[in-house]
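agent> Task received from the user: take the single chain below, predict its 3D structure, and emit structure tokens. No templates, no multimer pairing.
agent> Plan: (1) validate residues, (2) run structure prediction, (3) serialize to tokens, (4) report one or two observations.
agent> Step 1 OK, no nonstandard residues flagged.
tool_call: predict_structure(input=
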Amino acid sequence: MRPLLVLALLFVIAGVAHGAGECGRASADRVALRLAPCVSAADDPQSTPTSSCCSAVHAIGQSPSCLCAVMLSGTARAAGIKPEVAITIPKRCNMADRPVGYKCGDYTLP
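)
tool_result: status=success, residues=110
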């Protein structure tokens, strides 16, 4: 429950982006709140993501640049999300249309 609280507080502090960015008119920090069901999957590379996590990742993953921005966002970082683990969630969710090979900062989607 603590990571969800941290995400909510950061959302209130960060606010909503005023222009269009990687995730459209919503900031990556705001979109990161949708990945709350993925907190345990983003912490343990051996865990199986929940169906609600996979649904959220699939929806956000329609835009690889948004998914990348969310995984590297300040909200994700503050919640203790490990980008090197989070980047593997689309594969662990068996997303057939995931952007394999997409560069996300120092990471590449498997």
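agent> Step 4: summary for the user.
The first strand starts at residue 103 and ends at 104.
agent> Done.
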